[in-house]
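Final report, Chapter 2: Outcomes

The project's central promise was a pipeline that accepts a single protein chain and returns its three-dimensional structure in a standardized token representation, suitable for archiving and comparison. That pipeline is now operational. To close this chapter, we reproduce one record exactly as it appears in the project archive, with the input sequence first and the structure output second.
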Amino acid sequence: MGSSFRPRGEPLGAIPRPFGGSPDYEKIRQRVRAVYPKEGTRVTFPELGLEVLNLHHGRGRKPLVENLGLIVRLGNFKVLHVGDTEITREELAATGLAENAIDLALIPDWLLVYPPWKGMVESILRPRHLVGLTSEPNTAPKTSDGSARPARGL
């Protein structure tokens, strides 16, 4: 599968705190599926209508923070959530997401309105519907020249 997927019932090993440190974790442990696809791959859970994609959080970010994208199928309706990736045009095109006929894409504002990303979602993914998710100005990634983004992105 190209991932660190562990089938249901197989021990998951250490789950990072705070989730794994919760006293209630043991109540749900057998239902937890740990998955982390290798970059450029997907893990599919057909019984859940779910695909998990590794969409990096941002090259060179310190500390390294992982980011997973999700495709959720609700009947014939496909919803894409990319998390808060800083994926490039070339990387987005290489994901194959353009062939998924996305009905609704949930995208962070910087991928919609800031250079160098502006226009790439519409031109590469071509979702039927698009929702821009905004972030707090002090936590959003910097622009390509390193300057802070304006407080109101959309």
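Archive annotation: Residues 1-35 form one domain.
This record, like all others produced under the grant, will remain available to the consortium after the project formally closes.
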